[in-house]
Amino acid sequence: MSIPKSVFVNICRALLAITFIFSGFVKAIDPMGTQYKLDDYVKAVGMAGIIPEWILLMLSVILSALEFTLGVLMLMAIRRRLVSRLTLVFMTVMTAVTLWLAVANPIQDCGCFGDAIHLTNAQTFAKNVVLLLSACIVAKWPLLQHRFISKTNQWIAVNFTIIFIFAASLFSLYYLPIFDFRPYYIGQNIQKAMEIPPGAKRTKYKTTFICVKNGVEREFDENNYPYNDTTWVFKDTRQEILEHGYEPPIHDFSITDEKTGADITRQILNWKGYTFLLIAPLLEIADDSNFADIERIYQYAKINGYSFIGLTSSTYCGRNRWRELTGAEYPFYTTDGTTLKTIVRSNPGLVLLYQGTIINKWSTNNMPGEKQLTAPLALTELGREPSNNTWTKILLIVLGYVLPLVLLIIADRLWAWTRWLRKREQQVMKEENE
């Protein structure tokens, strides 16, 4: 066996494994974000509305789990021939997709690393070409990969990995993503994140408003929007970049009073106190099973003098439907649907602001309960920004997943070594008897 060849194959294998593990994990812990990206692809090929959202969500979980699992199996050299071939097929498909993105540019961000790392389509294609070449090399000489676990015990690592990544996705789906890579993280001051340094070149946007009247859709811009004509019903917005410039972390956050057409963003962000934001990108499909919790929080806010508003991109009909279903009395204002989906991965979700700073976020499944709303926010944990627990989460993942795998590898190597010693002793005894 050529040592340089073996080293080269294992370098390619490590490059593939690390990329797949990172890429699969950051997408797996944000299944709704991955679903939104898949929806962008579906729209780009002209199939909008054909594939149900629940299928896209299921695909996002499965594809992320597949990528993560392939990475772990390659890192540990499990089922070397099969995994190498599957990786080659996977990279061939992904490289073809990113070539289309680089040429046609139907989507500005491929989403290959979720919200953790953003690459241009050209950068993504170049990255995939390198990974495809690495996959070809590993598939050519799969048996040169150094194995960490013997064949007998490989099934333990495979099943443990699959269970772990699906559990991580389901946890993030039920609550919120384990790690938040988006600009609307807890501790972020929205207004400061929207500021542009003096003298910096500004990005020029073109915003298109889509409105409906008597079943007919029409597009408007900022200059001809029918603010005074209430017969036009706002439906959606679309934003295009005309010229790139300095782009602050948050550049697309705005709150509009649909009745008056006034921009009330600064009014909300400059409020000297606490503000609850009920985030519901689409009220028509929002989960209304926990509306009693939302109503309780609203009444709590009223009693204590806190602001409580709803943000949605839904039409007047959608808002009325929600009010009829839940009896909601709080006002709703308009915000871009994509922005709302970025703020919190839940429909609806709840965000607590203090003077424009995000103090906390909750999904519809874990909103503050009655026992947590017994005192003013300033006197409770809810009203204080939680300590940064990123390292705690990393430690839990290490203890819950990485450490057991390491212990499995050590136990497997010790078991293999003792087997070798027994065979060696038997061989020596046989030679002595002869």
TrEMBL record:
Record key words, sorted: Membrane, Transmembrane, Transmembrane helix
Any keyword Transmembrane?
A: yes
Transmembrane intervals: 7-29, 54-75, 82-104, 124-143, 155-176, 394-415
Q: How does it sit in the membrane?
A: Multi-pass membrane protein
Q: Can you give the residue ranges of the Methylamine utilisation protein MauE domain?
A: 6-138
Q: What Pfam families does the database record attribute to this sequence?
A: MauE
Signal peptide limits: none
GO annotations of cellular component type:
membrane
Q: Name one GO biological process term.
A: methylamine metabolic process
The keyword Membrane is annotated on this UniProt entry: yes
Cellular localization per UniProt:
Membrane
List, alphabetically, the InterPro entries matched.
Methylamine_util_MauE
Q: Return the protein name.
A: Methylamine utilisation protein MauE domain-containing protein
Q: Which organism is it from?
A: Prevotella micans F0438
